[in-house]
Amino acid sequence: MAKNINKLFPIILRSRNYSTNHPEKCNNYDLVVIGGGIVGMSSARELKNRHPNLKMAVLEKESKLAAHQTGHNSGVIHAGIYYTPGSLKAKLCVEGMKKLYDYVEEKSIPKKRIGKLIVATDQIEVDRLNVLYDRALKNKVDNVELIDEKGIKQIEPHCKGLKAIWSPNTGIIDYSLVTEEYAKDFKTQNGEIYLNFEVNSFSSSDNPDYPVRISSKDNNTVLAKHVLTCGGLHSDRLSELCGCNPNPRIVPFRGEYLLLNKSKTNIVKSNIYPVPDPRFPFLGVHFTPRMNGDVWLGPNAVLAFKREGYSWFDVNLKDVWESISHSGFQKLAYKFLSAGLDEMYRSIFIDKQVKMLQKFIPDVTINDVKRGPSGVRAQALDADGNLVDDFFFDMGKGDFGKRILHCRNAPSPGATSSLAIAGMVADKMENQFKL
């Protein structure tokens, strides 16, 4: 009997004082949020804070919150250095970092302000670094400074570089814990959270007060007045269920990390990042200390063969076909064919990845590392092969579709910016649906 409990009650969340009501007994809501990652959960919390009398629920397809992108990212609290001045990403990151630090301080969630070095190792990178520093100043990033080789050694004695940006307010945290805390806030105000509710359709209901029917893969149903989707790796599919355009398409890219052996973790004290190369879409390898004392090295970036494909052996043919048949991916792959093959090569032969790491810390050798965890990034691509680097919202068609707002892209640094993003999303929900 015990083995069948989850089959009998597939969408009950039994831990951490969350909801224990079966939705069939209490299935009508003023507002439903789909997606229990950090963006979905922060948005639900913000909307509940603003509108405590609204009856709200969060639906999550996995057996826990923060199961994918939120729970598999590097855990860095970003300061807002990289983003185009005046852009929404820059504004939300700077604002979000400050809000996040205040929040975790209030909630006593462990975090460390260990700082970040963005290190230039040759003159070309120095020129790019100067541009990046100017960008950081325009973004009003607090306390950043340019330092020389001597300054680098004072912060990171084992690090090699000509010049660097030092960002002392960059930190590290466990974003799964942050998401759980958002959920507690939501639940405290009588919000309901259902796990193992994998949405597979939206339709019109027969109830005029709750016109949107949300059905799960195992035939459970929730009715709602309005819906917000924050589906992460499945955000495009959720929007397509409402008749939205398939573009931008989510293409999953896996980032594979190496782990520095425990005997060597003392040689890395802060985050050490490369200067971004504008020719390529991804940042490159870096050194990332973790809250548990580990040091992650990487990641590379390779096409994942499954939306939640954390290894080469995780394969879903539907997911693969959706990626490789998409015109945007084909154009991206053609443009960056050589770089993509290099990333795959480094995935198989980790000594090649170590060689890139030695550019910053020569003391790291192949004997000092082992294969570590990986994460999958939901990269939105348009039909022309451009990486969608900004927020993208969409509305469905028909009577029920127009009651659903889809957050189809919440780009990095979504976790750092989660509280600021939640404010923006709540504003959009209020404006769109007159909550």
Account of the protein in words:
The structure is a single chain. This protein has 435 residues and is α+β, with helices and mostly antiparallel strands. 31% of the residues lie in helices and 24% in strands. The strands form 4 sheets. Strands 1, 2, 9, 10, 11, 12, 19 and 20 form an 8-stranded mixed beta sheet that branches. α2 crosses α13 and α10 packs across α11. The protein is globular and about 70 Å long. The N terminus is likely disordered.
What is this structure's SSE topology?
Layout: H1 5-8, E1 28-34, H2 38-50, E2 56-59, E3 76-77, H3 88-107, E4 111-112, E5 116-120, H4 123-138, E6 145-148, H5 149-155, E7 163-167, E8 171-173, H6 175-188, E9 192-194, E10 199-204, E11 212-216, E12 221-229, H7 235-240, E13 249-260, E14 271-274, E15 286-289, E16 295-298, E17 302-303, H8 317-324, H9 327-335, H10 337-348, H11 350-357, E18 369-381, E19 392-395, H12 398-401, E20 404-409, H13 418-433
Parallel strand pairs: 1-2, 1-12, 2-9, 5-14, 12-20
Antiparallel strand pairs: 3-8, 4-8, 5-7, 6-7, 10-11, 11-12, 13-16, 13-17, 13-18, 15-16, 19-20
Helix pairs in contact: 2-6, 2-13, 3-13, 10-11
Shape verdict: globular
**Strand residue percentage:** 15-25%
Please report the total strand number as a whole number.
20
User: How does the major sheet shape up?
Assistant: 8 strands, mixed
Distinct helical segment count? 13
Which radius of gyration do the C-alpha atoms yield?
A: 22 Å
- Which parts are unreliable, with pLDDT below 50 for 5 consecutive residues or more? 1-17
Cα-to-Cα separation, first versus last residue = 44 Å
| Helicity range | 25-40%
